[in-house]
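To the team - glutamic acid complex, inputs and output below.
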Amino acid sequence: MRSVRRAGLALTAATALILAACSAGEPGQTGGSATASGSETGSGGTAGGDTITIGIKFDQPGLGLKEGNDFTGFDVGVAKYVAGKLGYAENQIKFVESISSQRETLLENGSVDMIFATYSITDARKERVAFAGPYFVAGQDLLVAADNTDITGPDSLNGKVLCSVEGSTSAERIRDEHAQQTQLYPAPTYSECVELLSAGNVDAVTTDDVILAGYAAQSQYEGKFKLVGQPFSEENYGVGLPKDNDRCEDVNAAITSMIDDGTWEELIKKNVGESFTPNPSLNPPKVQACA
Ligand code: GLU
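Output:
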């Protein structure tokens, strides 16, 4: 049984890699907008310019989701609010996909002006990019099959196969703290991890609780998964900005007013409220001073 399952994982993993290779270059160029807008308005283009290019996730229900030409989720709502405060109407926003492993690069090469993509503020990332915020605090958790009884938290991962996403703090934490006990399959996106879990090819998907709750609540997975519910990190979601930006203070002011005027609460209720309750001792957070 075990070897069949492993073989299945290898096959699916290979398929995922091939798919990733075929679509390489897509994130950040979707709709051909990132490059064009990046060069027309310049990265960190001034408020009131034609358009602003914003990186989001395209495959994370409740946070950043692209369905046809519709973009929904908490990150999208926060992005629209902040862009509005910076002087951009909704039709001046170009959303482009920013998968976890490409976020720093997209900011560095000017493909995007800002990123709202479940993007944790970390010291390592601050070497390459800047952050406004935080505007939300999540925690790393585990998503398992509904009938799984042996994974109860980060201390019960012995011999387990986990899926997480390359370039995320989630994958890094497993490598740093659980490499001895676990096998990590790094996928390009969380939706691919969730498919592997659904097919029984991995034992758990690990990333932020709010992300996992969004997948578990999708109708096609109804009753299939459960969130373990023992968060083992603090993920402060920041707004990614190019390192030499002049927007950080304005973005922080916008986030503060979003929290103060009740929009934050509304966006949480509307986008994740049914599947997830944010940790009330950490949310809503206070913004940090810009560096
Ligand atoms: N918040 C974590 C990170 O920024 C995990 C989620 C993600 O990969 O977007 O790495």
